Amino acid sequence: MQTFDAIISGYGPTGATLANLLGTMGMRVAVIEREKAIFDKPRAITADHEATRAFQAAGLADEVMRGTCAHPGTDFVGVQGQVIKRFYPMPAPGPLGWEPTYMFYQPALEATLREGVARFSDVKVFLGHSLVEYRQSEHSVEVDLVDGEGQVQTLSGRYLLACDGARSAVRTQMGASIHDLDFDEWWVVVDVQLLDDIELPERCVQYCRPSRPGTYIVGPDKLRRWEIKVLPGESPESFNDPAHLEAVLSTFVDTRSVQVQRVAIYRFHAVVVDQWRDGRVFLLGDAAHQMPPFMGQGLCAGVRDAYNLAWKLDAVSRGLADPAVLDTYMAERRPHVQQVVATAKSFGLIIGELDEGAARLRDERLLAELNSGVAQTVRQSFIPGLTAGLLHFDDEAVLGAGAGQLFPQPWVSGPSLPRARLDDVTRGQFYLVCREARWVKRANALFADSTCLFASAVVCLDNRQQPGFENEAIYCAEEGGFITRWLEQFEAVAVLVRPDGVAFGIARDPTSLEGLIVDADQKMGSVSFVREVTL
After folding, report:
1. Are 291 and 270 in contact (CB under 8 A)?
2. Roughly what angle, to the nearest 10 degrees, separates helices 328-351 and 298-317?
3. Is there a contact between 304 and 385 (Cβ–Cβ < 8 Å)?
């Protein structure tokens, strides 16, 4: 029987991202995928800089970004054709060092991720195989898989990681219940290639019209998409009739100027699974949650799952963290994704209103909010931070300031440090960040007195220092002032950052700095792999 550190069921974007992350960590991984080839049509189309940060950790961000285009922003258009709401990406360059939101072609993304997996001799991919069932014991999970000819074999792994989609066989066997956020609508997705240089909106558009709600999406190159709501009394299957499809699509675009590439009938859901872990079995991506596409966060949520869990599996597998750390995966990800799903649902309700009187009242309200400046228009502001789990709390109930927020990763450089993104300097570690050199010695002393096994590298943004590695620090400068503003926002002198770029917590003085390190030590276990980085 072949044995692995982890067995991944499902080789879509979430599973492939996870396989790459675990591969970079030197883990022995098996990937089980029912299909023999990548699905050759676009499905997910939008991603953000958090997803790219995970691809960066896997060493693939530059390759992933090739062939993408910046998201142009989305206008919500009301009954009379007026803009009633805006949903725009933050200006580039963003605080994570990548395009804040962008459009991609999923077959190309998946091909890049699979090429990345091929770098690792310890990652074995079983294409054309389906997971039949699993059995777990205290120390391992056995998985039975069958190929297209009915041949069954069994694999053994320390963990089973289910990335097998909305119809997850693993979730079914687990018997996990599902929390339904009460959104259940039929929509038709139509992908086209432009044939002519026709006039279309420069931005994406949400057509919030009761007569036929719909979405227009600007994809890379000549790819365009319309998502069209199926009306009451209208059969979803009627869109399989080319004549009906053309009649409806023609209300959005001159159909003579486009070539239909794909027509897919979807039942948009808003659901979150209640139980994401059963012993050594974990659910990720669509196996754990599904959301309507109105925020473009479906793929991003799965990639966040993979990034969150991967570094914790690595720490536990290497004996650098207590196994209880794995409990923080669901504790962190489930509330986060449930809020994102709820927001996506709220957008869907805005777009899909079918009562004209209610739609006109909606338009008046949203337009007033937009004109008064009350309306939030930046996409990233709708993505919450973490609120539970492996974070610093000021007491038993109150999350510390800054804890759970994404920490920036600006470009940094110095005489002894070539220009690089911060994550590439601190890869795979916890790190301590501060601006002033006077905190370097204090941090080193605290880490030296700690029972944890902290590394000694420090990065300090203090131009008064001599270039080099004096006082166990790498002195450099950041570009854009993102870290400086982040620390000022929380009135912090230092911040402890996790390997996935999430702030564990901040310190405002020497006492709270000591408490921060002790808390991290206790939460990670008797040993830690925190690396200090001071900026």
Report:
1. yes
2. 180
3. no
User: What topology does CATH give the domain 2-70+101-178+274-322?
Assistant: FAD/NAD(P)-binding domain (3.50.50)
Sign of CA dihedral 102, 293, 232, 211: negative
Whole-angstrom Cα distance, residue 133 to residue 130?
Answer: 9
CATH number of 411-524: 3.40.30.10
Q: What is the DSSP string of 2-15?
A: EEEEEEEE--SHHH
Residue 422 identity: L
Task: Single out the residue of 241, 181, 158, 250 nearest to residue 212, CA to CA.
Answer: 250
Integer Cα distance of 80 and 168 in angstroms: 43
- DSSP letter (8 states) at residue 59: T
Amino acid present at 463: N
pTM across the whole model? 0.95
Cα separation, 3 vs 68, in Å, equals 38
| pLDDT tens track for 23-76 | 999 999 999 999 999 999 999 999 999 999 999 999 999 999 999 999 999 999
- Report d(CA 305, CA 308) in Å as an integer: 5
Positions of the chain with pLDDT under 70 = 396, 447-460, 463-474, 526-535
Spatial CA neighbour of 45 closest among 259, 192, 182: 192
Give the residues across from 530 on adjacent strands: 430
User: What angle do helix axes 510-524 and 438-449 make, rounded to 10 degrees?
Assistant: 40
User: Phi-psi category of 427—alpha, beta or left, where left has phi over 0 and alpha has psi -120 to 50?
Assistant: beta
Query: Do 181 and 345 touch, CB atoms closer than 8 A?
Result: yes
Q: What is the C-alpha to C-alpha distance for residues 244 and 264, in angstroms, rounded to an integer?
A: 14
Structure tokens at 25: 């960590």
Distance CA 484, CA 93 (A): 16
Going from N- to C-terminal start, the domains of the chain cover: 2-70+101-178+274-322, 411-524
What is the rounded CA–CA span in Å between residue 189 and residue 45? 12
